[in-house]
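Hi there. Long-time user, first ticket. I'm pasting a complex I've been working with (about 1500 residues overall). I'd like to know whether the download I got is complete or cut off, because the file seemed smaller than I expected. Thanks.
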Amino acid sequence: MNKISFYSKVCSCLLFILIFQCYTAQEHPSLILTTKGVAEIRANLGRIPLFDETLASTKSQIDAEILNGIEVPIPKDYSGGYTHERHKKNFLMMQKAGLLYQILNEEKYAKYVKEMLFQYEKMYPTLPLHPQTRSYARGKFFWQALNDSNWLVYTAQAYDCIYNYLTVSERKTLESNLFRPLADFISLENPKFYNRIHNHSTWGNVAVGMIGLVMNDKKLVERALYGMKKDGIKEGEKDNDGGLLKKPGQKAGFFANVDEPFSPDGYFTEGPYYQRYAMYPYMVFAEALQNTRPDLKVFEYKNGVLLKSLITLLNLTDTEGKFFPLNDGQKGMSYYSRELVFSVDAAYLFGEKNTGLLSIAEKQSEVTLDNAGFAVAKAIQEGKATSFIKKSVAYSDGIKGDQGGVGILRSKGSTEEITLVMKYAAQGGSHGHYDKLSFSLYEGGNEILQDYGLARFVNIQQKGGGNYLKENKTWAKQTIAHNTIVQNESSNFEADYETGDQFHSDKYLFDANNPNLQIVSAKESNAFPGTEMHRVLALIKEDDFENPFLLDIIKIKSKTSNQYDLPYYYFGQIMSANFKYETPNILSPLGTKNGYEHLWKIGEGSQPEGNAKVSWFNNDRFISLTSAVSKDDQLIFTKIGANDPDFNLRNDPGFMIRKTNAKDTYFVTALEIHGHYNPVTEIGNNTFSNIKKLDIVYQDDQYIGIKIMTVGGDLSIFLFSFQDADKNSTHNVSIDGKIYSWNGAFTLIK
Amino acid sequence: MNKISFYSKVCSCLLFILIFQCYTAQEHPSLILTTKGVAEIRANLGRIPLFDETLASTKSQIDAEILNGIEVPIPKDYSGGYTHERHKKNFLMMQKAGLLYQILNEEKYAKYVKEMLFQYEKMYPTLPLHPQTRSYARGKFFWQALNDSNWLVYTAQAYDCIYNYLTVSERKTLESNLFRPLADFISLENPKFYNRIHNHSTWGNVAVGMIGLVMNDKKLVERALYGMKKDGIKEGEKDNDGGLLKKPGQKAGFFANVDEPFSPDGYFTEGPYYQRYAMYPYMVFAEALQNTRPDLKVFEYKNGVLLKSLITLLNLTDTEGKFFPLNDGQKGMSYYSRELVFSVDAAYLFGEKNTGLLSIAEKQSEVTLDNAGFAVAKAIQEGKATSFIKKSVAYSDGIKGDQGGVGILRSKGSTEEITLVMKYAAQGGSHGHYDKLSFSLYEGGNEILQDYGLARFVNIQQKGGGNYLKENKTWAKQTIAHNTIVQNESSNFEADYETGDQFHSDKYLFDANNPNLQIVSAKESNAFPGTEMHRVLALIKEDDFENPFLLDIIKIKSKTSNQYDLPYYYFGQIMSANFKYETPNILSPLGTKNGYEHLWKIGEGSQPEGNAKVSWFNNDRFISLTSAVSKDDQLIFTKIGANDPDFNLRNDPGFMIRKTNAKDTYFVTALEIHGHYNPVTEIGNNTFSNIKKLDIVYQDDQYIGIKIMTVGGDLSIFLFSFQDADKNSTHNVSIDGKIYSWNGAFTLIK
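Hi, the file is complete. Here it is re-exported in full:
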């Protein structure tokens, strides 16, 4: 044996020992803090400002909790109620106290966790199912097994931190009476909750996995990673949204839950609000696995989709960091949430040390009290932070990235970025909305054309216990609640989940190469059978416009004659309309079903010639909508709130263009954000639309030509090919005897 | 003649010369800048930051204007339109350019003013009345003589600054062809505009006075100070609001306009929005008079009411400096307006050097480029600024202070000040609202219970040329548009101005000595003949309430049976109600006239036992209203916006308590601002009302006793005497066999 060979063998051997150690070592802590990490943190206390600040505020919070005393009430309430909020607070406090024990090495924190754990241990064995019965998978501490899983994910970390503080017998008591039974309850006793592809299941998997790692229980870890082989779920069994609980051959467990909801681009099919919610279990378990089972290379799984998804999620925010409320999403949720604080830190440490993440962490102005948070705070102190640049981008949806997606256009405005978000994705699971080809528009953090979001007041007990309100189904999910086409007052797929889940829209093109002419376009052929819809949304920046303006073109081709409605939901007050309209003396709902029953019709008119123009005023800004309409189009003003016996809906206004008895048709609309009014100087500037005329000057099955004339008399023609998105194709059309030629699917000729 | 006598004579003589000089000296500038002031400013350039910053930004603004070139278009538009806004900009720019010429001593600024003046001079002689005919007193440059007066007030200052730059012959040309004809036009040719007690007249008087001072034209100055002896206004002649143009024996001119609208406390009867507007001419002319006619002692006039009124006006703002929108007032107007920048500076220099004003000037972050602004900036640099403390205060209305008034209660809340504004004033002139005993409530700068303000979009041309909308009369002025009692769906004085103008409410008591129990109370006997209303509003601070809560008691005594409505206008969305209510499938207006035609009735219910409680949610805050109602009371949810064919009204919600067939009755309501919801953590705290029960436990003609029981079981009893507000009186009532005794009109017994 030569030397090289000898060393090679020694190395292999060491490597084996190392790997073996990693797998079996029972160092504690090892989930998000490691012994090495703790040593480094302790050695640097007082030197890393952001870490020290978070530590100080956490310490003061936990010290106050310790003073307040431990409360472990008998479970009783829905979310928003006392027992729910107390148990929720308990697991959050335990986790933090555990970290403090490790970092500050003060016994009182370990003692606090230990005492609380033993109160839970005392209660658990005789605890029945939670008395509130609304959930399909009731928990014990909480009304949903989901929240019990939250509890275990956090508590596992607390247990990890005080593991070595406890005696062997104490650990045995806790594990036998509390942790293992709870892990089994979540999984074995709740297969419909645990063994699915769903954000709920991810929480379940991770709860079982995290406690499994601390307890060094390989069975639990296996069950977490790969699900349960036997779950008793019958073929064809559906959940209460009408979706299959399990598709044939469907895998389960953590890895399956990484596989399924994420596209290769890291887009989470349920949408950003739920991605944010899911992010924490994904990242915390990945981090724990990376620390304890590096052999699994979890962060490399599916081309590193977990780390990628965090970047994607950050891009799915407005300029203030608030998530676009695609599908069910409560407005206001943002990257300031604790899940994102955790994930941003983790993605920095375990990813490629993306310094853009550091600037997000700076804005969050806190870090996690663990290895990752320390690394972030240290890098910030070292001045490594750079801006996190959000670009115009298209994200694919679907496991393989072939199920449509979401396109975001970002264009610099005079004061704020104008942001457009178009959705042409798959159904998005049970939280999906029937909103094919819908979009929303922002100026900075202000919604100009809004997506309604969800009909729910999360954790506000007065409103249905903080749960989904029935108006979520009757209004928020319906197509009419979105800025997109509704055919015959129905919803996409007749709002049938199982049908909708089989289809997706298709991206036609996404091109943001020219910052002055950014375009996203997609097609939808299944939402209204027999009808093809093709939408083009462009942000166009021209010198004589204060801001990039939106050009919205929808081409509809149908086998039948239909009524098409195109609503735009805005905020603010109508300033002017260039057509006559009547406001009724008595308000009636616009329709009787599919969400129409929730709209008051507050005005109706028509424009006998040319363009309909409506301007409104919000946040001291003017917004003008100009649409090329025909004299037969009905122009309808609406307000949300009809048939709303509990005042569950926001009473936001809308403007709708309705075409009746139409087969093949176009909707062509421009929208400008302009002007400003200062209530102190009482001076308004640029308060009028800059578009004098918007005309369809060419249309056939292949092309459309739109002429835009400004008030100043400038002309531009937008030309678009509906059938060939190839960048290298050449197109020609003849308009008024003049030949226009261009390369690629679109052009804007001045 | 002894020495003393000799010196005495010399002194007298010198004094005479001095006075004479002051009166006749033609030093320029002398209005808001003096030669001495200019010298001091020039000597300190670059040393006084706030002054230098204002100077730099003004310079850059005027330099840009000079580059842009002069535009003096033929008058054509209403406010908001091009010619209006251009002429308005012109006088503002000329005034600033004049100041820059003096301070920087650069000829280009004088040249700019001169050239613009000569363009006006060229246009004026042949200029007809403004083509827009809506005003009762049309101008020439603008649609109202009022705006022409604005023009002259500012332009006089510009002329003063470049006076010495012009040749004698140039001055003569300007004075003969432009200034004197314009001054005569405003006054002699528009007596109904000029010779009244009205904020319009003040502008007219000051315009004539300012140009008179510069031209050293004593006739014009006399006309400004004391009005015109002959005005041809017929006795009994009324304006379009139905008010007498001139009461018999009424004086006119500047001093009369100081006498009349201000109470001795400095409250301006039209309300703060118009006081702000009027403040500029009052202060600028006072300053100019003080500099040129110190013999008039203008700042001492009527016990120094001008300076006092500025302090009063600053107190009529919320914590963000926004004026309470009493009477016609556009929301958002604040002490950041240019009128207040000017007035704050002037009040500092010409008043008692109130250092609190300096902190307001710091917030304004600009000063005027004149003697006063320099003094303020210098004092700030010297570190003299102190906080401007706004206290709870009652201001009297009426020339003699005997016509009711306005009471403001300010109480420290958990995060923000809770501010209550009660109005029990006189009619308030043509901009007055029929809102006797109304109030509004703020938390910091947020309106909790709102005063609607006016129905107008000032200077936004799309909305009726920026002028008053018809809904101002049909809605905003009506009693139902306010948080106060409406009898039989009518308005106070049947909304008849002439009647309303004869009466006022009466303060019953105002007591803010105890910060934990602040009270304002007033009575009204004329608004609904035969009915006496007595309202008590208390801000009560108790330990187990997050914020001071409002207790609102209204005692009504009538000769007849009536319907009484008490609306509360709020912002946000209903979270819960403790009574059953129906929401109609079809919305109808609540009534047919007096503003009721503008309210949609969106829900109605009743509470068969005890208290009606409604909670709503706004700005992440919860607000709960608890009212002691009877089973016959109708509880009505409303929304503003019916019969609004041009969408001129904001669609704000209201909650109304209606008592029918009532003669003598009480409304007793508590309102709590509590809790917080964080959309990022999704945690809501203190989201429920803390009041379990609100009961009237004692009532007779003299006393009322209200028992308040909290959720925690704490009891307190509020006792109030309606007939004896004397602080030294002793009262006794027996409740449930127990005798309660107290001193003064009210007490809160725990």
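A couple of notes from our side: Chain B has 18 helices and 26 strands. The two ends of chain B are 80 Å apart (CA to CA).
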